[in-house]
Specification:
Blueprint (H helix, E strand, L loop, with lengths): L15 H7 L11 E6 L3 E7 L19 H20 L6 E13 L8 E12 L2 E10 L2 E14 L2
Length: 157
């Protein structure tokens, strides 16, 4: 008996399979598990389920594990890259999306094992293959981090 994967009937949802098709990151550096509320060239909400098994918790910090702020910003950037890749229908065989700037970054609340990061990211502007974003990393109703950042599509061949 053959089983088929369930068909996602929500066109605004992006599951892990599609995330893996859209960006080149892999464990241990893939920091987006799925996304929802996708609006082409406008916005997306990335989701990261933070577990105690994340490799960075062994050293940051063993007695009080906290997700490093730079990895929270990377998770925001990966969320923006998923939005860009889907909006532009990027050919991932010959191109990739690189994070090119970060501005006005603030860390406001620690992210700990067991937390679910919700990362609403909105497009501030875009021209061609360059996008400027504003994003937040939320744990419940608390802002863990926020930043403006930019990314661009580049040839890898």
């Amino acid at each position: 008996m053959s089983r088929k994967a369930p068909v996602n009937s929500d066109p605004t949802a992006i599951d892990i399979s599609e995330v893996l098709q859209r960006i080149p990151h892999r464990y241990p550096f893939l920091l987006v598990d799925r996304a929802e509320d996708y609006k082409a060239s406008e916005s997306i909400v990335g989701i990261k389920c933070v577990t105690f098994n994340e490799p960075f918790f062994a050293g940051h910090f063993p007695d009080y594990p906290v997700m490093p702020g730079v990895l929270i910003v990377e998770a925001l950037a990966q969320t923006g890259a998923v939005l860009m890749s889907k909006s532009l229908n990027v050919d991932v065989e010959g191109k990739t999306i690189l994070f090119i700037s970060v501005d006005n970054c603030r860390f406001r609340h620690p992210v700990r094992p067991g937390d679910v990061l919700r990362m609403p990211v909105e497009v501030l502007r875009h021209r061609g293959d360059v996008f400027k974003f504003r994003g937040q990393a939320m744990v419940g109703d608390k802002v863990a981090a926020e930043a403006e950042f930019a990314a661009m599509v580049v040839e890898t061949q």
